[in-house]
Amino acid sequence: MLSESSKAVVIATLPVVRAHGEEITGRFYPRMFAAHPELLNLFNRGNQATGQQKAALAASVVAYAEHLTGAGGPAWDAILDRIAHKHASLGITPDQYTVVGRHLMAAIGEVLGAAVTPEVAAAWDEVYWLMACELIAREARLYTTADVAGGGAIWRDWRVTGVVSEATDVISLTLVPADGGPVPGFVPGQYVSVAVDLDGGLGQQIRQYSLSGRPGADHWRITVKRVRGVGGAPDGLVSTVLHERTAPGDTLRLSPPFGEVSAVAGDGPLLLVSAGIGLTPAMSALEHLAATAPERPVVLVHADRDGSAHAHRHELPRLHARLPNLRLKLWYEQTTDGDDPAALTAEVASGRVDPELIPLSPDAHVHLCGPLPFMNEVRGGLLRRGVPVERIAYEVFGPGMLRGGV
Ligand SMILES: Cc1cc2nc3c(=O)[nH]c(=O)nc-3n(C[C@H](O)[C@H](O)[C@H](O)COP(=O)(O)OP(=O)(O)OC[C@H]3O[C@@H](n4cnc5c(N)ncnc54)[C@H](O)[C@@H]3O)c2cc1C
Ligand code: HEM
């Protein structure tokens, strides 16, 4: 709870802080990285360069202030959970909150100048620490559940046992713990962080990859799409290393599995909707159900550019044989003679997914994963068709949330 005195100050200053959000963020990161260059290894350089992530931290503090002052807004439990899982997968530690808080408050002071009286500074500091404490507590619980001693202890070496080409520009990697220890379990939909050292002494970068194999198997599998730079932008840092420089026998640093979104929620009908590389949680869900609940009614709707871009598609007939109540519906922007519905055991349509034509049980739990515009469109269509909002879970393969989130 925000103290009454701070509440009044935060209400009075919210409009000016919100209006200068971008400027505050613009000052915050450079001053924090200048004082703590080691944090460059923690943050995503691509997101920093494109500005995608930059706004997320300050914007979420402002949105949290609105929440604390009673202005309503989104469902905070879900948002805090999402951030905490992401932070845990990066090994964020409580002491780093002091660093972020100091530089965020200093950036607010630099931008708003004399408007930041000691009372104003104290009120926003209170907002920051209320949010920080919520996150620190959630992250501590996640570390305990993952059986690690804290953020500093998340990294473990894994040995690559296989590299398989799955489609154009998509490979999967199979991995086992390098120390021969047990393979931790996970829920389909969860992801691991992968930390790679960049060439030329450029430090480390961390990215998340959803586990695409079966929980309980004696190995993990991730499926990675190579990100190529378009229009002069550089190629993706980590996906390029994984594609070009990773071979069986190599070692990778991986986090435990984290992620608050289950791809197998409920125990009734399940609708999995994916596009492009967003199919990785769905593949894990199908493998899991084939092993544990083969009778469960499942629809997989998958959209891709064409059959050659569709990773894991050769696995679908095998899964279909093990899941008698599975219905597969594929939408390819371009179909070819090779897209034989009988061989694929799937319905195959040309063009983009039409949400009106998605097979839908009234009581289905839905899991979406793909580019944000795709998910917004599909979710909008499913909501119009009467699916309750709380039954639609979604995963974003980058920073950000769907319309209506922070
Ligand atoms: C929860 C979660 C699960 C995920 N699961 C998967 C998965 O299963 N499979 C998968 O393949 N991916 C997955 N991802 C995405 C993955 O984490 C990476 O984001 C992806 O591999 C790209 O990382 P990269 O380092 O190759 O690219 P980055 O280096 O991060 O580059 C990303 C983009 O930014 C652009 N960019 C970089 N620098 C600049 C610049 N200076 N100017 C302009 N543009 C620039 C690049 O051109 C590129 O388009 C997941 C992400 C999340 C958050
Ligand atoms: C109250 C304090 C904080 C808030 C409100 C906050 C908020 C956020 C949000 C909203 C995201 C994006 C989540 C997503 O959608 O994927 C995020 C990601 C991230 N946060 Fe925090 N955060 C806080 C503290 C910290 C601290 C202390 C650190 C460590 C120095 C940190 C490091 C990161 C990193 C590295 C990411 C991933 C972003 C990327 O790599 O581009 N955060 N945070």
Number of helices: 12
Helix content: 25-40%
Order of strands, widest sheet? 4-3-6-1-2-5
Total number of beta strands = 12
Order of helices and strands: HHHHHHHEEEEEHEEHEHEHEEHE
Radius of gyration from the CA trace?
22 Å
Strand and helix layout:
Layout: H1 4-19, H2 21-35, H3 45-50, H4 54-68, H5 76-90, H6 94-112, H7 118-145, E1 156-167, E2 170-177, E3 191-197, E4 204-210, E5 220-225, H8 237-244, E6 251-254, E7 270-275, H9 280-292, E8 298-304, H10 316-322, E9 326-332, H11 341-344, E10 347-350, E11 365-369, H12 372-384, E12 392-395
Parallel strand pairs: 7-8, 7-11, 8-9, 9-10, 11-12
Antiparallel strand pairs: 1-2, 1-6, 2-5, 3-4, 3-6
InterPro entries: Cbr1-like_FAD-bd_dom (IPR008333), FAD-bd_FR_type (IPR017927), FNR_nucleotide-bd (IPR039261), Globin (IPR000971), Globin-like_sf (IPR009050), Globin/Proto (IPR012292), OxRdtase_FAD/NAD-bd (IPR001433), Riboflavin_synthase-like_b-brl (IPR017938)
Enzyme class: oxidoreductase
Keywords: 2Fe-2S, Dioxygenase, Heme, Iron, Iron-sulfur, Metal-binding, NAD, NADP, Oxidoreductase, Oxygen transport, Transport
